[in-house]
Amino acid sequence: MRFGINTLDDIDVTGKTVLCRIDINQPINWETGGLKDTTRIKACVPTLKELSDKGARLVLLAHQGSDIEYKNFHTTLPHSKVLSELLGREVKFIDDVCGPAAREAIKILKDGEILLLDNVRYVAEEQTLFELNLHLTHEQQAKTLLVQKLAPLADLYVCDAFAAAHRDQPSLCGFEQVLPSAMGRLFEEEFCVISGVMENPERPCVFVLGGAKINDAFLMMSTALNGGIADKILAGGLVAHVMLWANGDEIGEASRQFIKRQGYDTLLGTAQELLSEYRSKIMLPMDLGYVKDGKREECELGGAPEGELVVDIGSKTAQTFGDTIRAAKVVFVNGPMGVFEKEESGLGTQTIWDALDQANAYTVIGGGDSITATHKYGTKVSYVCTGGGSLIRFLTGEELPVVKALRYGSLLEKQG
Ligand code: 3PG
């Protein structure tokens, strides 16, 4: 047991049906239906291999995409194929989550066999919007459809989804109420490494926040600043757009309209509050990048031509951010600086990632897109955490919902 949670060393899984929640949420290639990156899938292989080798009848639960908010749901079928290849053994797939077909498939599993269920967020109670609006307690989560239908078929619950440890959803926090539980090897490793970095963080500690998961980014910014963890915040991506707007800087009508259409203008108030309290700690872009006729162009704040969407930070900003990173002792990165998938809007992200590569600091990268960028630019970093939102919430020192649930489920095993 570590941190009050059972590890795989504390449970006997042979011949047992084990429900294992993993986080294999990956960027999807919408044209081919395949996966753009497989880092998170690779990261949970040791746990799955160990459980299967020990003779568990392994049932995998996972989400893909967020929810209505991000409109990026996808089946987990492609993930089962990648897992089969990585594990060198068949990972069966069933296009059902907890209905009769899924339950039948679970019942006929043999020792060592692995079954991946379809995207758990196809069940409404697993969606983040449901979580945020209803705030079910863990006890209530144990009474949801998912837990009621699957728990009776299982002997044990294992959570290896550190990347989703900040989510308070039944597949993550409900099963521990009724099944003896443990964390997987990846969960254990990430918990250990991140706690270690935070025990005595060297200064300056810099946070690079960008990307499109803007609600998460704002929560991260608030917690990192209010908790006194961050000495500097470097804002890029859509986070920077909202911050610049809140700061009274001109980002152009097209970008403002885009933010409004996404509903992110609701964050302007929070952005203003953060700016008024922590202005000296928040670094905003001083120039911007946009694409015109397929070519990269740059402008000062306020200089984006009408109708042009800002898609990157400018090169002066990238240089200044890079210098700040090179002078840091600890750097946490969550989210790219722009649309780095395209060559003409990748300069900002690439410059920042190059600075990470050169930095004489402990660098931690978290979150799906950041990991993809790390691979794309061949960046050397100290630690790649599969979590984005979970990593930052972990840093606040608050007990994460899944950690709390696992602690409860670990005691259940002792009593059982
Ligand atoms: C992530 O991508 O950070 C995790 O998979 C959690 O996903 P979520 O933010 O959609 O809950």
What gap, in angstroms, lies between the N and C termini?
16 Å
Compute the CA-based radius of gyration.
22 Å
What shape does the CA trace take?
A: globular
- Ligands present: 3-phosphoglyceric acid
Main sheet: strands, sense, barrel: 6 strands, parallel
Keywords:
416 residues; alpha/beta; six-stranded parallel β-sheet; 18 helices; 17 strands; globular; binds 3-phosphoglyceric acid
Written account of the structure:
The protein has helices at 39-43, 45-53, 77-87, 100-107, 128-134, 138-141, 145-150, 170-173, 185-199, 214-226, 237-246, 253-261, 268-278, 315-326, 347-358, 368-376, 389-395, 401-415, and strands at 17-21, 28-29, 34-35, 57-61, 91-94, 114-117, 156-159, 181-183, 205-209, 232-235, 282-283, 287-292, 295-300, 310-313, 330-334, 362-366, 383-385. It has a six-stranded parallel beta sheet, with helices on both faces. The chain is built from 18 helices and 17 strands. It is 40% helix and 17% strand. The chain starts with 16 loop residues before the first strand and ends with a helix. It is globular. The model has no long low-confidence stretch (mean pLDDT 94). The protein is an alpha/beta fold and 416 residues long.
Short description:
The longest helix is centred in the middle third of the chain and has 15 residues, at 185-199.
Secondary structure: elements and pairs:
Elements: E1 17-21, E2 28-29, E3 34-35, H1 39-43, H2 45-53, E4 57-61, H3 77-87, E5 91-94, H4 100-107, E6 114-117, H5 128-134, H6 138-141, H7 145-150, E7 156-159, H8 170-173, E8 181-183, H9 185-199, E9 205-209, H10 214-226, E10 232-235, H11 237-246, H12 253-261, H13 268-278, E11 282-283, E12 287-292, E13 295-300, E14 310-313, H14 315-326, E15 330-334, H15 347-358, E16 362-366, H16 368-376, E17 383-385, H17 389-395, H18 401-415
Parallel strand pairs: 1-4, 1-7, 4-6, 5-6, 7-8, 9-10, 9-15, 10-11, 15-16, 16-17
Antiparallel strand pairs: 2-3, 12-13, 12-14
The structure holds 3-phosphoglyceric acid (3PG).
3-phosphoglyceric acid binds at residues 23, 25, 66, 128, 163-164, 167, 367-368, 388-389.
